[in-house]
Specification:
This protein is 44% helix and 11% strand. It is of the alpha+beta class. It folds into 2 domains: 86 residues, Winged helix-like DNA-binding domain superfamily/Winged helix DNA-binding domain (Arc Repressor Mutant, subunit A), CATH 1.10.10; 99 residues, Winged helix-like DNA-binding domain superfamily/Winged helix DNA-binding domain (Arc Repressor Mutant, subunit A, Orthogonal Bundle), CATH 1.10.10.10. A 3-stranded antiparallel sheet has the order 3-5-4.
């Protein structure tokens, strides 16, 4: 049995992103079970897969993606924050969304995007820290992002009053089709930028010149809510 077809079947049958490690373990464990109790033909096919490495799984994933590309398929395998999954290509997103009229994506307002960008680049951060950058109250914007599942509370800061700290979620990575916040535009540089800050929430000093934080260069994925 071909490894590439096994991986395709795993991706097709699982509803959540699959990590290379989980796919590798599934292949090895199943191959061992078949090698111990299968028919002669099954044993011959499964035995080579009992020691398949995660590197082989990763390489086979790339072969699967390349095959879809050559064949011009309407779907591909995309990497998300927690693993790989089958999904429609971006150009077919609107056609797919038509099947879910109650789940059409709601665009974030500019203030919400600005608030989300600050959280994404400077997380974990308090509301006071966000407000120091934006210059206005962000209670409504933060609540909107929490309701959308793009932001989550990440504990409390060691500051007077123990204010809540906020960071992004796995849904944020899925929404913008990135693997981690390190994939955001200019992530390393913008994390070092000195921003206006609340007196009790001042960031570490930086020699970098002030810049505007933005998510504008990141395109939402075809599976975004």
């Amino acid at each position: 049995m071909e490894l590439i077809k096994i991986i395709e079947a795993l991706l097709f049958s699982y509803q959540e992103p699959l990590s290379v490690e989980l796919m590798g373990r599934a292949v090895r464990e199943t191959a061992k079970e078949i090698a111990e109790a299968g028919s002669e033909n099954e044993i011959a096919a499964a035995t080579p897969l009992t020691n398949v490495s995660d590197e082989q799984i990763a390489q086979t994933l790339q072969e699967l993606i390349a095959g879809y590309e050559r064949e011009g398929r309407a779907f591909t395998v995309a990497e998300r924050g927690t693993g790989w999954r089958l999904c429609a290509r971006t150009e077919y997103a609107e056609w797919c969304r038509s099947l879910y009229p109650g789940k059409k994506p709601q665009r974030l307002s500019q203030p919400a995007l600005e608030t989300l960008a600050i959280i994404a680049y400077r997380q974990p951060i308090t509301k006071a820290g966000i407000e120091a950058v934006r210059g206005v109250s962000v209670d409504a914007m933060v609540q909107q992002l929490l309701d959308r599942g793009l932001v989550k509370a990440e504990g409390r800061a060691e500051l007077p009053g123990k204010p809540m700290l906020y960071g992004t979620t796995e849904n944020f990575l899925e929404h913008f089709a990135i693997r981690s916040v390190d994939d955001l535009p200019n992530a390393t540089e913008l994390r070092r930028v000195k921003l206006p800050s609340a007196e009790a929430d001042a960031p570490a000093p930086s020699e970098s010149p002030p810049q505007q934080l933005t998510l504008g260069a990141v395109e939402p994925s075809s599976t975004a809510e």
